[in-house]
């Protein structure tokens, strides 16, 4: 608990409080800079890749720090981690706004925003749970997990660059493909075999 941390390990409690403050201050200072860069750089995928590289460096670097009390680099990495977090938030919000502003996605702006929030929330819960459990075994594990996620994200972004825009890719076509999957068949069977038009009317 918080009180036990103060009593049994005051140095670690103080250091973690300082690092949290540094990361949040970094996010606060870099927020307007992130907004300006997002407005000026039209290719948000490239910007997202760059931020991901810095995120990997920050989290992977933290995993190598064995003596936090005597390391200057831990403060530098904390600044990087706080900065990339606010960059991720602003870039993702901007990209999501651009997507839902398109004519064929605009009717589903609420669903798209909801799914985005759901995926983000699940990711936070998963990393918090798994990182916390593994952190009890090895303190560097949570940072390594984030670094691995960064690598996977960079790979995914590079692959997505090859995907071309398809005006025929709309909500109905996505639902139709989902219906052909095993999970989709179970879902639509439970709804009494409805078609995609009825699904769109319901949602």
Core attributes:
single chain; 203 residues; mainly alpha; 9 helices; globular
What does this structure look like?
This protein has 203 residues and is mainly α. The chain is 78% helix and 0% strand. It has nine helices and no strands. It is globular and about 60 Å long.
Give the count of helical stretches: 9
Helix and strand composition category: mainly alpha
Choose one word for the global shape. Answer: globular
Proportion of β residues? Answer: under 5%
CA gyration radius, whole angstroms: 21 Å
Sequence of secondary-structure elements: HHHHHHHHH
Helix content: over 70%
Terminal-residue CA separation: 43 Å
Q: What's the total count of β strands?
A: 0
What ranges have pLDDT less than 50 throughout 5 or more consecutive residues? Answer: 198-203
Report mean pLDDT, rounded to a whole number.
Answer: 81
* Sheet having the most strands: none
Topology:
Layout: H1 2-8, H2 10-40, H3 44-62, H4 73-100, H5 109-137, H6 141-160, H7 171-179, H8 182-190, H9 196-202
Helix pairs in contact: 1-2, 2-4, 3-4, 3-6, 5-6
In short:
The protein is mainly α and 203 residues long. The chain has nine helices and no strands. It starts with a helix and ends with a helix.
């Amino acid at each position: 608990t918080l009180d036990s941390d103060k009593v049994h390990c005051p140095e670690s409690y103080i250091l973690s409080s300082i690092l949290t403050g540094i990361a949040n201050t970094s996010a606060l200072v870099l927020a307007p800079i992130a907004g300006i860069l997002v407005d000026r750089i039209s290719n948000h995928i490239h910007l997202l890749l760059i931020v991901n590289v810095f995120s990997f460096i920050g989290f992977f670097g933290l995993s190598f720090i064995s003596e936090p009390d005597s390391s200057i680099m831990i403060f530098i990495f904390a600044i990087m981690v706080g900065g990339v977090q606010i960059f991720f938030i602003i870039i993702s919000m901007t990209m999501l706004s651009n997507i839902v502003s398109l004519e064929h996605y605009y009717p589903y702006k609420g669903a798209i925003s909801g799914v985005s929030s759901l995926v983000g929330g699940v990711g936070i819960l998963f990393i918090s749970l798994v990182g916390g459990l593994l952190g009890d075994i090895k303190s560097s594990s949570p940072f390594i997990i984030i670094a691995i996620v960064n690598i996977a994200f960079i790979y995914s972004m590079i692959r997505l660059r090859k995907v071309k825009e398809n005006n025929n890719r709309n909500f109905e076509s996505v639902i139709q493909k989902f219906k052909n999957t095993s999970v989709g068949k179970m879902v639509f069977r439970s709804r009494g075999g409805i078609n995609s038009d009825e699904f769109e009317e319901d949602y």
